[in-house]
Amino acid sequence: LPQAVVFDLDGVITDTAEFHFLAWQQLAEKLGICIDRAFNEQLKGVNRADSLTRILQHGGQADAYTPAQRQQFMTEKNELYRQLLANLSPADILTGILPLLADLRAAGCRIGLASVSENAPQVLASLGLCNWFDFCADARALTHSKPHPEIFLTACRGLGVAPAQAIGIEDAQAGIAAINASGMYSVGIGATLAGADYRLNHTGELAWPDLLAHWQAKQ
Ligand code: B16
Ligand code: MG
Hints:
It holds the Pfam family Hydrolase. One of its GO terms (biological process) is carbohydrate metabolic process. It is found in: Cytoplasm. It catalyses: beta-D-glucose 1-phosphate = beta-D-glucose 6-phosphate. It is an enzyme of class 5 (isomerase). This protein has nine helices and six strands; from the N terminus they run E-H-H-H-H-H-E-H-E-H-E-H-E-E-H. 42% of the residues are buried. A six-stranded parallel sheet has the order 3-2-1-4-5-6, with helices on both faces. Helix content is 44%, strand content 11%. Helix 6 links the parallel strand 2 and strand 3. By secondary structure, the protein is an alpha/beta fold. The mean pLDDT is 97. It binds 1,6-di-O-phosphono-beta-D-glucopyranose (B16) and magnesium ion.
């Protein structure tokens, strides 16, 4: 049996990935930069500062602003994002997640969170999910954003589980790369993801018996 499952948050447990996109899009528009959902795939799992860098590069404005201006843009984006979070409730937990959490707990499998979002504790609290998690990696304590494996390795260490004995679930290409680089088994949620050990189209397809069978087949 795998000893732990580590979840990404935005786009796996709830659809805050869409809120991140809408907030970035609004800020980008103000700067005269157009971003669409295809471009947004590159921002998923990427922290706030690196996301801004990518947007400015995309708009040909890589060197156009001072560090203080960039800080201001990040603050603005976060305020927009937090407005969108205001009504988040347990009803916003994506299909398939609660049954999976219950099955993991029943199987004695530890449960971890690997979100690079500094808003993750609040999102988890709004969803009423804090008690399910044995360990949540602290985004503020990280040196590297995904695709670096740091956050998944931190989560495994916090859970007291070797990466080879753990499964990671992600909706971002950068997240799949991070899981693979950590030595964990990767589960990808999304039609366009490449490189996952096991890929599903949406969270409603997540089921513990299937997950277990795929994991065991790769051991
Ligand atoms: P914040 P995850 C990531 O969370 C998001 O995918 C990414 O779009 C966002 O920029 C990042 O968190 C930082 O979030 O601005 O709230 O600190 O996918 O790792 O759960
Ligand atoms: Mg995500």
